[in-house]
Amino acid sequence: MTKLINQLGSLLVLALALLTFFFFIGRTQGRGAFIVLSGSMEPAYPVGGVVFTKPLNFSELTVGDAITFRSQGKDNKVVTHRIIEINQQEGFARTQGDANKVPDGQVVLPKDIIGKVTSGVPYLGYGLVFLQSHLGKWLMLMIVISSLIIYVIRRFILTKKSTITEVKV
């Protein structure tokens, strides 16, 4: 049982380290991670997944690239859709969701483009949304505190018992 707890604890620490690496290091390089909230890009990027982006110049984009951008509407929401047309002379791209039957109503200007999608991880977004919730934050805090308590008990209390036992024998 103790071995299982150790392995689960190690796995949790590794997972947190990887998430921290991808989100912190990625952000310092201008990269981004965005949770997919609608089905407009299915099956390539399903609802609840996360897409990772990298910034690049408008001139580097090609038809067929999936990009993440800020919509020009009053809500200024972040959208990930695929480029179906690029007009370099007038400086805009036309996009459409893979699952949508018609192109987006507005064109995308270079200033609104956050980046080109480099990869996606299905279902990771559900976990991230949960971890951002009040309950998720408390759960993570309890896991960290419990891990520290288990570590202290194993390291100091159980070690002292085995040392005392060895001295008596």
TrEMBL record:
Keyword terms of this UniProt record: Hydrolase, Membrane, Transmembrane, Transmembrane helix
A cellular component annotation (GO) from this entry: membrane
Transmembrane segments: 135-153
GO molecular function annotation: serine-type endopeptidase activity; signal peptidase activity
Compartments where found: Membrane
Any one biological process term the GO annotation gives: signal peptide processing
EC number: 3.4.21.89
EC class (word): hydrolase
Gene3D superfamilies: Umud Fragment, subunit A (2.10.109.10)
InterPro entries: LexA/Signal_pep-like_sf (IPR036286), Peptidase_S26 (IPR019533), Peptidase_S26B (IPR001733)
Entry superkingdom: Bacteria
Protein name per its UniProtKB record: Signal peptidase I
Annotated source species: Vagococcus allomyrinae
